Amino acid sequence: MENREQYFNRINRFGRISFAIFFVLIFAIPTIVCAVYDIFPSLATVLKATMGLFLILTPIAISEIVSFVPLLGSGASYLTFETGNVSNIKLPCAMNALKLAGVQPASEEGEVLSTISVAVSSIVTTAVILITALLLAPLAPVFANPSVRIATANVLPALFGALMVSFMTSGDAGAVVVKGQWKAIVLPMLVVALVHYLIFPIKGWEGVTILVLLPITILGARFLYKKGQIRVVPKEPKA
Amino acid sequence: MDFFKVANGSLLFVLVAAGIAYVMVQCVLFLRMALKRGRELGIDKKVISDTIKSSAVFTIAPSIAVALGLAAMAPSLGIPWPWFRLSVIGSVSYELMAANMASSALGFAKLGDAAAAGAEPLGAIMFAMTGGLAGAIILDIVFIKKVDSLAVKLKAKAGDFGTVAIGVLFFAVLAVFVVPFFGQGLVAVATFCTSIALTLILAVVAKKYRQAWLGNFILAFSLILSMCSAVLWTQLVK
Question: How far is B113 from chain A (nearest CA, A)?
Fold first, then answer.
């Protein structure tokens, strides 16, 4: 059996190589299409159109790597960033899986379960989108239905309400339980409320805000831990 | 050449299908590696099977929102390119914005206007949407291993507090997404509160009636039911 480091190195080697091939592949698609149909844009046009997106998406990527990789682990991170829909599907899905299993992120078990969760989630999302692509014409009336539009427009409040409860009510962390963990959410929520409602709306700046909020959240938790408001206790055996 | 002859052409369909197939193979290989590692670590088979089931069921409802993104993008960009972007790498919240930004940089007032100018803008839009993510992909390849390794080391070094710190990291994500709901109108707030109430109710039901299976699907059921409740709240707010 491999030790933790060997598995870690192997999954990262596989992730890096397969992600690098993917990088080539995503550029190959527009290149082949443009070559076959002779519609290559000029380099200046491409740079002009790319620059704005590059400047927005790169800082978001930095914040996602710093914020989400410690939660997901390496294997799930490669898959998550490659298959997209990070904060609305993959991250909540993996976090829910770890919560249900009573396993912490940044642990060997956490790495395994989050990889399984994200792989399954990616396959399901791809299947749903494939079915939609194939049935786009017959499904058009369903997508145009106002009720479907309202329901899907509210997916984030519905998702994060449920997630918030499951994360605040359980401090299950493998062999131990973190008591009073919910108190650590008060400070980041106050900071976000202050910034969002009194200084500037954070819409479009979520990635940067998470990045700034991470040390604040950890320092707040450290303070509560030192004061005995958050405690780590051994898990009581089930009756 | 007509924009949609290329955008809905068989060549793009084939290339996109090949790209998605590559990522699916990768998912299966990662899944195999993780399952094998799970067996080596002695993780209970039931835990693995519950993880697979709950992840699959949980994913369906938010995937429908992504599928709706495909329906929204297809009239402007054809089917295969949005299909590719939403299946891999893209996010439903960024893709439409990315396509609009690219077409706007090309001088078109609306994404739909690009189609009227022939097939040339399609190449530029596809390159721009891909190139915009180039920095992100390179950063992912370089830094995922380093950040993960650092997190594991810091957690171990910090002892009990390491457990607390990792546990509260997700609170930063929750705070950033949850707080703005309160400024998005009554329907968003009511949906959010409904989701909280349903999750609590389902958790109590699962515990009281010893329905262990239900515990794995609480998030999925709460998500679907509270999305449906948004329709009711919208009617009541009118």
Answer: 15
Query: Would you call B167 and A133 a contact, using CB atoms and an 8 Å cutoff?
Result: no
Report the percent of chain B where pLDDT is more than 70: 100
Characterise B9 by phi-psi region: left (phi > 0), alpha (psi -120 to 50), beta (else): beta
Q: Which range is least confidently modeled, A12-16, B106-110, B124-128, B191-195?
A: B106-110
Say yes or no to pLDDT of A57 above 90. Answer: no
Would you say residue B68 has pLDDT above 90? no
Query: Minimal Cα distance from B22: which residue of A?
Result: A22
Q: Which two tokens stand for residue A44?
A: 């200046």
- Give the residue among B229, B160, B238, B221 at the shortest CA–CA distance from B193: B229
Average pLDDT score over residue span A113-136? 94
Distances (CA, A) of A173 to A66, A101, A103, A180, B20: 21, 9, 5, 13, 36
All residues of chain A having their beta carbon less than 8 Å from the beta carbon of residue B58 are: 92-93, 96, 121
Q: CA-CA distance, A34 to A43, in Å (whole number)?
A: 13
- Spatial distance between the Cα atoms of A237 and A47, rounded to a whole number of angstroms: 61
- pLDDT 10s digits, A148-169: 889 888 888 998 998 888 778 7
Return the ∠ at Cα B200 (arms to B183 and B62), rounded to 5°. 60
Minimum distance, in Å, between the CA of residue B105 and any CA atom of chain A: 5
Q: Residue A177, SS3?
A: strand
Nearest CA in chain B to A41: B124
Q: What letter does residue B109 receive in the DSSP assignment?
A: S
User: Which residues are CB-contacts of B52 (< 8 A; sequence separation ≥ 6)?
Assistant: A116, A117, A120
Q: Which two tokens stand for residue A203?
A: 């819409």
- For residue B119 the two structure tokens come to 């097939």
- B228 contacts on A by Cβ (under 8 Å): 151
Which run of H or E residues covers position A232? Answer: strand A231-234
Alpha helices, DSSP H, located in chain B: 3-7, 10-41, 45-77, 80-87, 92-105, 111-116, 120-131, 134-157, 160-178, 186-208, 212-215, 218-237
pLDDT in tens, B197-223: 999 999 999 888 888 778 778 888 898
Choose the mutation target among B14, B58, B73, B97 for the interface with A, i.e. most A CBs under 10 Å.
B58
- Name the β-bridge partners of A176: A173, A234
Where along chain B do its domains lie?
Answer: 3-132, 160-237
